[in-house]
Amino acid sequence: MMARMSSAADTADPVTASTRVDPRGADRPQTERPAPPRSRHLGWLFALAIAAAAFNLRPVVTSLGPLLDQVRTDLGMSPTVAGLLTAVPSLCFALFGFAAPGLARRLGPVAVVTAGMGAITAGVLARSFAGGTAVFLLLTALALAGVAVSNVLIPVVIKRYFPEKVGPMIGLYSMALSAGTALAAAVTVPLTKGLGGDWRLGLGVWAGLGAVALLLWIPVLVGRRRDSAGPAAGAADTVRLPITRSRTAWALAIFFGFQATGAYVVMGWLPTIFQDAGVSSGTSGVLLALTMVIGVPVSFVLPNLAARRGDQRLFVVVLAAFGIAGYTGLALAPAGAPWLWAVLVGLSNCAFPLVLTMIGLRARTAGGVAQLSAFAQGVGYLISIPGPILIGRLYQATGEWYLPLGFLAVLLVPQMLFGLRAARARHIEDEAVATASGAVAA
Q: Of 202, 232, 262, which residue is a domain's last?
């Protein structure tokens, strides 16, 4: 499989490889074609590096949550600052994600992802030695910056170097990301206890996985020297599309934002919901892990199935239906069938690998994917920031979970509607051409 996967930029002229004249007469960017492989072994290494990078994109966050009380006490962190810390990931994902396409144009996406792995490793390791709140926040932001640029650019790398295998590679990426998320949430506390109970060791140990990913990306970077040089990115990567005028881009961004809202609320509040219903703290933690673990196999299968269809509207509706059923069950009888509700909510959160797949399919070129990925994730994460805060306020005001869970169920309706628009078989480059033609005609 990997023998057929390589970059058109490696062997073809950058202009003709990425922007061909449509034979029907429309000057419209055409989908990039894969070139003959330069190294089968490098292709396998590349796939392994992508999986390792994806595995490191969430432990920065999910390893901190279970130890946050210890971190607060040791560093003298106020509750307000601790609350700010829970909003920092989405903010960093948005702000640094917007910068990713510009960095990719100058350095190449492989070089930027490699640097991102370095930032994650350094930030996670160094924050475990932080002596104060400000330094801890700064080093956490450094690690999250590495996560943000990698979030945006790994789909770009997949589109460029695996253009015929976007579905399987997005599936591998999503599966590894889900596995890293679940593992960090599940084992951080017992791992910390096994290391003597020191939160610094419990957080710092995750830098080891970042170092492994970095060691895998360095030979990939060396093997793709032309990619990291910048010009090999191709003419399509340097053309800035009027992305804000694309209805598909906006639909993807809002769909991304709503699904991220649900995911962050579940990660932050699901154990409390179960505990308030009388479920033990240990079981509630296992139920949270189940919602994340269920995404591991689904995240691999779903992108493959979605990429084979002309559009992905069926999957948008099915995942929303799972979520509505899960939130309704949690509201009405949380202790009645907790394992079922956890599975349904976990399946609903698989809208994340679906939207990543759609980002890869809604653009014809790697440059288009870079801009679409940055826009959809940047705007989407900004949309998601108020969600967990609002849910907390609703719970505080009512003392019950009916209204917060009802809100999450209702939120799935606009998520589905925007998802249906984003799932249609369109390309943002075509919309850019149509927009430009309309401007000229005007």
A: 232
Secondary structure (H, E, C), the chain = CHHHCCCHHHHCCHHHHHCCCCCCCCCCCCCCCCCCCCCHHHHHHHHHHHHHHHHCCCHHHHCCHHHHHHHHHHHCCCHHHHHHHHHHHHHHHHHHHHHHHHHHHHHCHHHHHHHHHHHHHHHHHHHCCCCCHHHHHHHHHHHHHHHHHHHHHHHHHHHHHCCCCHHHHHHHHHHHHHHHHHHHHHHHHHHHHHCCCCHHHHHHCCHHHHHHHHHHHHHHHHHCHHHHHCHHHCHHHHCCCCHHHCHHHHHHHHHHHHHHHHHHHHHHHHHHHHHHCCCCHHHHHHHHHHHHHCHHHHHHHHHHHHHCCCCCHHHHHHHHHHHHHHHHHHHHCCCCCHHHHHHHHHHHCCHHHHHHHHHHHCCCCHHHHHHHHHHHHHHHHHHHCHHHHHHHHHHHHHCCCHHHHHHHHHHHHHHHHHHHHHCCCCCHHHHHHHHHHHHHHC
Is 69 in the same domain as 138? Answer: yes
**5 found inside a domain:** no
Is the domain of 172 the same as that of 294? Answer: no
Each residue's pLDDT tens digit in the chain (442 positions)? 343 443 333 333 333 333 333 433 344 444 444 443 355 667 788 999 999 999 999 899 888 877 877 888 898 887 667 766 767 888 888 888 888 888 988 888 999 999 999 999 999 999 999 988 899 999 999 999 999 999 989 988 998 888 888 888 988 998 899 889 888 878 888 889 899 989 999 999 999 999 999 999 999 998 776 444 444 444 445 567 788 889 999 999 999 999 999 988 888 788 888 988 998 877 887 888 888 889 889 988 998 899 888 789 999 999 999 999 999 999 999 999 999 999 999 999 999 999 999 998 998 888 888 889 889 989 999 998 888 888 888 888 888 999 999 999 999 999 999 999 999 988 888 887 666 555 534 3
pTM for the model stands at 0.78
User: Could you tell me if 190 and 265 lie in one domain?
Assistant: no
Is 285 in the same domain as 296?
A: yes
Q: How many domains does the chain have?
A: 2
- Residues 245 and 166 placed together within one structural domain of the fold: no
